[in-house]
Amino acid sequence: MVLRHAREVGDSLTPGLRTLVVGAGSAGSALVRDLLRTPDFGLVPVGLVDDDPAKVGTEHLGLPVLGPLADLTPIALRHRAQVVALAIPGLPSHEVRRLAKAAGAAGASVRYLPSFLAALRREVVGTDMRALDVGRLIGRNEVHVASPDVASIIGGRRVLVTGAGGSIGSELCRQIHAFGPARLYMLDHDESNLHRLQLEIWGEALLTDESLVIADIRDRSRVRHVFRTLRPDIVFHAAAHKHLPLLERHPCEAVKSNVLGTAHLVEAALDVGVQRFVLISTDKAADPTSVLGASKRLAELIVQRHARDARNLGTGVYSAVRFGNVLGSRGSLLSVLAEQMGSGGPVTVTHPDVTRFFMTIEEAVGLVLEAGRMSRGGEVFVLDMGEPVRIVDLVHNFAAQVNAGDVEIRFTGLRAGEKLNEALFSAAEERLPTVHQRIYATVSEGEPEDLAGALTALYDAAEDNDDTVVRKLLGDLLPGYATAELTTVQLPVAAAAPYPDGF
Q: Are residues 191 and 308 in the same domain?
């Protein structure tokens, strides 16, 4: 019975991501059995790899053992694997890094035992990969985005990631490292984040390597010095302020980092002839109602304007990528839910009908890498994220999966700048297909009149820390943007923990 079912799965009769399991021992066997029993999880095992020559060429639980670990890349390519699951407990860190690099070279993402939830939250909270059914949470199957073709823009090139210590930035660094860049430069203003990231990727953190760059993107001269010294070929710009309620109260800081910082980077990139530049944006930039959304929309416009300049000069390709809410990012939904449930207090949700688009961190990074590969200049890319998810439904689904029982939900009201429902494209933007069936693009037809002069006035107001003028200028630059009145929501002490957008 197991043999027949496994062969059907291997023949792709069951929908899901094609998965190679590394390790045909007891842990690998348990993982294969669990995945075969729970096809709704979305991982479809198609074979195993193992270094035991007695197992290679045999069938294990109805699946073929396809070869040794050293042949992971060609095996993954031959069998069109989209995920590689490492199921060898106690595997040395250097071997994990080698296998992750081999999987990345085949365009496959990597999952680790003991749990997929651990991969999302970066902490061990379960005993197997069934700890969290992501598809049930986000209302759709996870999309495998990045293709092996990404290696064509990464391999052998100098790649710079800004905001490298953050959730998206660090995952970008891990996956870029697997594609074999000539150099990977990791830029952040937080030295502790860089120390942690170097330890994760290389297994040591001596802090003596030029790959680590301490810099603040607000500092124009420092940014120019970094670019002229390192001369990166590819730039992924993930550095930003991104917490909506905080930026409503501190709009000048949003302008300094998200708008001016982006301008510094694209100007420096043009100066040294960067080949590809990808900005990480947000779905809140579509018809923005918040300072966060407005600042990121202006960042998109700055990138698109420089994309035209780069195209005219024949020097590079500049684009942007919009995300919904990312599961697994620092301070995101999962960690906040776990904290609030663990403390015994109520879960705070802004509104009974509030919805958001969600994606996993693997999808987010895959979208960034694929956008970098596909871009011809000036596009804003968006992943087809299905239907928006009601936060209330997501809370109940999460509670059920972690056996939290009945959960008390307390509604706090939408905060200043928040939307009840997000959109991926503005009303004036056209959704355009790309060569990837789950990725769309849009290209702005125009920009605000005298954008350069208006931005200069905005930067001056931000430098003066004049919140009132900054809000007015944001409204002048983006006619569809209406500044919101600040409101204060008084929360009981027990429920006053920070929570992300929608909570």
A: yes
